[in-house]
Structure formats: C-alpha cells, structure tokens
Amino acid sequence: MNFDLTLLLNVDKAFVAYPYSKGEVLENSQQLQDYFQLNVKLDPLYKEWSKVDKQFSKVAKHYPGVRMLRQDPVENVFSFICSSNNNIKRISSMVEHMSTEYGSYLGSINDKDYHSFPTVEQLNKDKNIEENLRKLSYQDAKEQLIQLPGVGPKVADCILLMSLDKAGAIPVDTHMFQIAARYYLPHLVGKKSVNSKIYLEIGDYFRDLFGDYAGWAHSVLFSADLKHLQGMKNKDDIEGKPPTKKARKQKPA
To answer: Localized where (predicted)?
Structure first.
C-alpha cells in the first residue's frame, strides 16, 4: 500500500496526521471526522462541567481533549466479550484472529497483512441490528445488549457510549465506584461491591451532574484517576469535595 500525501486534522488544538493516497482525501477526512466525533465541541463542554464540579475543574487542565471514539459496534461487542477474564495482550490477539479469519483484507505494511474486523453480514447475523440499536432509547438499547451472552450492565454501557451514540451512558467499574465514593457520594465509602442499585445510583448521579454528555465527562475523570494510580498527578489535583451545584437533570436519549 503506497501513500502519496498526509492529511492533517485539527483536533482540539492539536493535529492528527493520517497518510492517504491521491483521490482519497475527502473519504478519509469524513471517516476521521466521524471516528473522532469532531462535530462535538469539547471546549464548551469542559467549561460547563468545570462550572458544576470543582473536582472536574481541577483535573481537566491536565487532561484536555479526552474524546470518545465512535468505534464500530460489532467489533466493540466482540472485543468486550473477549475481555472477560483476559488481559489486554490476549484480547488483542483474539480480535486480530477474528479479523484475519473472517474480515476483509485491507493491505500490507512492512510485510504484515491487515484485515478489517468482520461485518455483521460476514458473521451471518442480523444485518440491521446496529441500525435498530441506534434508534432505541438508552434504556431499551441497554436491555437488548444485556441479552447477549457475556454482556452485563458495564459492558453494555461501554458499547452504548463508545459505539452507539449514547453519550449519557456511564460504565461503572471499580475505578468509577472509587471516584464516586471519594468525591461525590461519600455514603458509598465502605461498600464492598457494586450491586445493581449502586450501579444505577452512580450513573444517575453523573447524568444529573454533567447532562447529555455525561459519559464523556466520566471518561475525563476516569483518565485522571488512572494517571493518579500511576503516581503522575499532583496532590493538589486529587483532593476535592462533592460539588455543590448541579446542572439541570437530564436523561440519556
């Protein structure tokens, strides 16, 4: 595969370089715009989230430009199913194997062949499932996903947030539970596990606080917490109090 030019996209005051061949610039530009969801302007969202949450305001300056990628739903579903009781290396290997076995050949770079992740049609499933899920409400789409083997509430929320345009979905894992207990819902301190009631409470709290794009705000807090665990944050940025002001209550579409 030979590349003639490099396409530069302005993403949150930075640039993404993408190689392409002549005649492909428009198609590649549209694909990247969609993949990075560049129609969503982060600056106004960061400002609004910082107004309603002091903790977000503290960490946001260190983590600008945290975006939700608009990933392929089929690949995302299978990737999360593969993630159960596996490490990242094994998950990547399983996804690559499915792509090689069932996907379409894309090209070779440095003598390595690359394949797309198989489509629903290639996996002999209902070809309209993605379109149907996008049309459903957040709750209805989540109930549909949970019916799949290996998909629970958290995985369903990950898929809804990352692939099905449900920007208010809040995946609650151990990190988000700890963040909620530490900064926002102190009565959760001492709870040993996340049951369905606590899961819903945390999700609803962040949706009430951050509004329609609560899932994006959650990702900034999640990223900041991972850096904190790696010892890469200042002490002043990990101390905070529950926010005193909330945005107007909104539910995910």
So the answer is: Nucleus
